Fold these 4 entries.
Entry 1:
Amino acid sequence: MSDVNLYRRLYEQHRDEAPRIYGINAVNNHCFPHFHSSIELVCMHSGCLSALLDGESYDVHAGQVLIVSGYMVHSFRTQKESAETILVIPLFLIPSLKKTLRDNVFSSPVCDTAGNESLRALLELICTSWTTLSIETQIGLGHALLGMLISQVGLSPRCADSRSMGVIKDVLIYLQDHYQSSISMEDLAKRFGYSKSRFSHLFNETLGCPPGTFVNALRCQHAARAMLESDQTLLEISLGAGFECPRTFYRAFKQYYGMTPSQYARAHSDNLSQTTSKAVNTP
């Protein structure tokens, strides 16, 4: 999994409350399902990104923009390689479009920029300069960009959440708050009004993985942060993350990150040391 998504939350409230457009450049992006009210744009530079939006699958290629409307549960994964810039635009930054984008969704989540030089130029400007733009400029460019996208792909009335999607969003929030505790799939299914088999099927169909795999992913993210931010032993970290035993922790961590916990800690400690050294030695 790409480190760029290490601190992503399922309900990204901090994105909705951010004082400016949030941007990040990603390579081989991969993130687990999450949602927010902000508009998220994924501007593809190369390769192909597979996206899951409210249970629907899309492949996004170079020269295209993925538009994630507010409150959509979405996740990304890269099959081979991808490079993209992700822009998250909080609704309060675009007051004249706020109500429109709350009541509607983009008719197509994938926008091809070929043939629209104005849109391409505006995207390039924001993707390369978002860190240096003033708030006033960001607001103006945000309005212009979303206006162009609305003109290009159109808007459709937002349908009321199906019961299943509403439940899944509640489940995501619940798991974010309780993944460190012992979680029984039977109890989890019962809490949300389903049989275990039906709940597992719904979760897997909507989010692309079984509930247990998802919970272990949250625990692995917690453990990865703890390894870099604390002096705890791996046993303490694994138990604190919610794993019942070190063996389960090691197996889940290697499956998720492609390396053992010790390898992860060593690799990221080396990167941190190099970054710190560069910062100290920079005149």
Entry 2:
Amino acid sequence: MTPASERPAPRFSWFVPIDGDGAHIGTLRAERPPTFENLRAIADAAEEAGYYSMLIPTRFANGLFDSGEPLAETWTTATALAAVTKRIRFLIAVRPGFVSPGLFAQMAAALSQISGGRIDINIVPGGIQGEFEKMGENIDHDTRYERAEEFIEALRRLWASPGPVVFEGDHVRLNGAHCSPGPVDGGPKFYLGGASPAALRLAGRQADAYLAWIGPTEAIAKFIAAATAQYDAAGRSPVFGLRTHLVLRDTEEEAWAETEELLARAEKNVEAQRQALFAGTAMVGQRDQAKRFEDHRVGRHLWNGISTVRVNCGTALVGSPDQIAGELLGYWRLGVDEFILSGYPHLEECRRVARDLIPRTESLIAAERAAV
């Protein structure tokens, strides 16, 4: 691992809740639907507060409230938000296979030009059982990762030169494709997550940053060690990020009380929808997020109750600002340099976290770096 004194200053990013938002989750309808006005207000607040970037996930159906409820489409939303902001970056989740690489290279290059280079790409090859099939996609888990690798390689070639580009892969083929103008500053960075062997291999070969979902520090340490081995095998240097929800309050008691309030209005049929999606999933990370613990307490400050009503990352750090800052310091010690945070509702919690948590965490990390 890179010595602490040589690592970059930590980055803190926020989240765009395309499923909707509110002080309660798992209800039939979101208290705050994912209208452009609501999402723009969060982006404006995150930019004003000084966050580095905002993660925009990808979904085929609402994954936090009833599955038939409104959902903001990822790429359109990212484009609109990039056009009305000035500094903050956007980490945009993309599923290879649903748009041709040649066309996507042009789309991403255009958005890079429009935004002044403020976009990065979160490649999402995997999916929950049955999710891809609903959209007419029927290839297996490992093949999705093989296709994702060709997708990334093709994009890099298209962005490196105005063309013509010829690419002959098993899943991606280009015959004289062009991309001009290309993206700003060499193009977006690629983020990859996933806990399966296929995901770790792909990250080692192609990811500019490996992004893990929050878990106990011992589990994250194992992921980082496994990913580092893959980066080493590819002769590349790893960068690690961590995605987590937060339940942050002035005291630990208030924070744990808030976890109960967050799910106080959850509907049984929404919980049933999520559990049906998780049953038999090939996603290693999703299975880890949904493991059962008494009162959903994974650890003293880790709570996975969100996983009962939400797809993908369903675990939160819970506690006071000093407690959660100490927890984030522990993950930083493992090698994490970027933290992608969220909390409900996202507008108010964006400001609370920027005011009460990030300065404390930065101070702890700065002191540790100076002591080396």
Entry 3:
Amino acid sequence: MNKRSKNITWQQFVAILFYILIGVVCGIILASLSDWVFGAELSFWGEMIYFLGTLVIMFAAVFVQIIIHEAGHLVFGLMSGYKFSSFRINSFMWIKENGKVKFKRLAIAGTAGQCLMAPPEPVDGKIPVVLYNLGGVLMNIITGFAFLGMCFALSSIPLLLVVMLLFALIGFVLAIMNGVPMRMGTLNNDGYNTLELVRNKSALRAFWVQLKVSEMEAEGIRLKDMPDAWFSIPSDEQMKNSMIAATGVFVCNRLMDAQRFEEADKLMNHFLEINSGIVGLHRSLMICDRMYVEIITNNCREAVDAMFSKEQKKFMKLMKDYPSVMRTEYAYALLCEKDKIKADNVKNRFEKYSKIYPYSGDMQSERELMKIAEEKV
């Protein structure tokens, strides 16, 4: 686990260094173009306004290129035989439910967007994965060159040239950061996932299962009611592969949904102790579940607080509106802190968020787990 943490930290450092380098390059280019754009040397305040203006354009470029990236997954996914399931930009989400596309809200730490699609049925154990997974990268590259071409077309309009140049550079940056295989923060990037899928047939099967689970969750079907064949426990060796490890996490989640807490806790503890490919997001959510199980079974404050590390607190704060996080906070406030007012505030937030959360089956499951905590008072 320590080795894994160091790898993530190193790759995050490379990513940050890369972004800083791009920022410096953009700064040099924009500074050198300022006099040409305005036709005269700018005053101090003129330079400041120009600098702030370019920052605004850069943020706009990032937002647009994120949409383009996720649209790339959608377009190339449809071309590969996938069907639309959900499309998310930041916390804004459109999800297909009972044949209709509905607007919901979902924020996941470490992700700016996500396009999930219903996969085609496997043929000889295979499904197309490269275009779907790298579709976002390809679209960023295509539009990057398109914006670059517009720079030449708009060379007579300096200000628009600068805007197009920024949109092109941001597109290329996102393509590199998502295309070069890397484990960053709480999740793997597209390049890393693609590499795992083409190398490992078991990972390919796990990828298909993940998309099918997502498809059924969108229809309100709970994990405990999905086919048993999808939820076999991977071996410790298989758990080193992050794609397969996600199915191991699903097994734990399914045990929690079925309220088989002893089995769930034992398996989660094992997965957290071994050297595995479980991504940071799933790892932290698993700790959340273990905290809940400890609270409702033994209610040992010391054991719960031992899991409530500084890193875990930071994660739960970032994911404060996620159902399982709210459920754990509710149980903690109710049974550990004996703070009914705080618990009620968490429950009210939970009920408010349940109206916009995309997966109704999850909310039903979490509501039942909160009820169990109430019965322990």
Entry 4:
Amino acid sequence: MAWNKCLRPVVSLALLMLVTLTGCRISFKMNGSALDYNIYRTIRVSEFPIRAALVYPPLQQTFENELLDYISKNTRLQTTDGASDLEMEGEITGYNLTPQAVSEDGYGSMTRLTISVRVKYINNKEENKDIDQTFSAYRDFTSTEMLTDVQDQLCDEISKELVELIFNATLGDW
């Protein structure tokens, strides 16, 4: 009988902990986005024409492909050309080269390539989540390298970074 009296508080505590633990649930979304797929099913991604003073024509296709690939890999949204739940459009507004470091002979030793993209994100289900924002990213390269030799690689790297920034601000809803 004394043994039962000792077990009662332990069993009661164990049951209380079990009820508490099963009543709380933590969930993480591992798809990279914070979208409710019961509400959002489609997205329209328009072209991003180059409107910068300095133009590198392959950049448009590189950026657009990176954006579409990232969306398809990190969401379950279907891309469409017609009416959609979400829309993304914009333009490449900047493609700039600026000297960054000067060597002892007075010439630039590092050059920075900066790319800017203006994005208009339209949420047709919740207007208060619309975004019209410019995103920029850059990479530095040594002035001993010709831009034509590193341009494709830099544009790929910068496009990836821009797409992540855009995704986090729009579909990632961070």
